[in-house]
């Protein structure tokens, strides 16, 4: 996989923050979608947001200056802790520069946009963060579909508190998309195989902002269920995270490098307990 350069342009999302399915769930998700169809919203404005209970959708086009194009995000339904949403995009420019990470957000993103998220949680706790994500994607360019989790040294981060670490869980990579940094291992987490990469985000002066740890599914999947704390536990056991750190945010979305396409999240949830 190609190494993906990133720059502190990712912090563009900070400014904004200040301001169908698996077979077993098909009927429930479809009914919820029908019930909420009248309330559906679409946002195409850069860094526009859509509230969805404890989550919110972020039209996060943090890398748009590396090319030209546009992206929109639409909510489909919300039923308790479960949501559905979709996005469409058209981007041109450097194929190894991320243009956007349009996503659902639970918890911190340079501030807080929703209540009752259940986050942050200390890494030493035994509490789980169980997730289910089922999606469909159609793309003609490099894209990754991934969770993005932020880790802080402080227990109650504000918009002023940059993270210490970023933990990405890539469910699939398309048309040559690859993570930041170098591969350090192939590991088993949650009964599945992942290539583990490690990289760094630095500012224009070369100062370290935060470390990036990326788990890339070795075969790719469009449906995942598991405990997200298994990934932070794995890194803590390796000594790459500290047990006294705090998981402050869980996001799910896609990094678009170039091209056009669409992705629909049929079923998505994160529950604590």
From TrEMBL:
Q: Which residues form the signal peptide?
A: 1-31
Q: Which UniProt keywords apply?
A: Carbohydrate metabolism, Glycosidase, Hydrolase, Polysaccharide degradation, Signal
- Tell me yes or no: is Transmembrane among this UniProt entry's keywords: no
Q: Which Pfam families does the record associate with it?
A: Glyco_hydro_12
Q: Which family is annotated? A: Belongs to the glycosyl hydrolase 12 (cellulase H) family.
Report what the protein is called. Answer: Glycosyl hydrolase family 12
Q: Which organism is it from?
A: Nocardiopsis endophytica
Q: What is the lineage of its organism?
A: Bacteria, Bacillati, Actinomycetota, Actinomycetes, Streptosporangiales
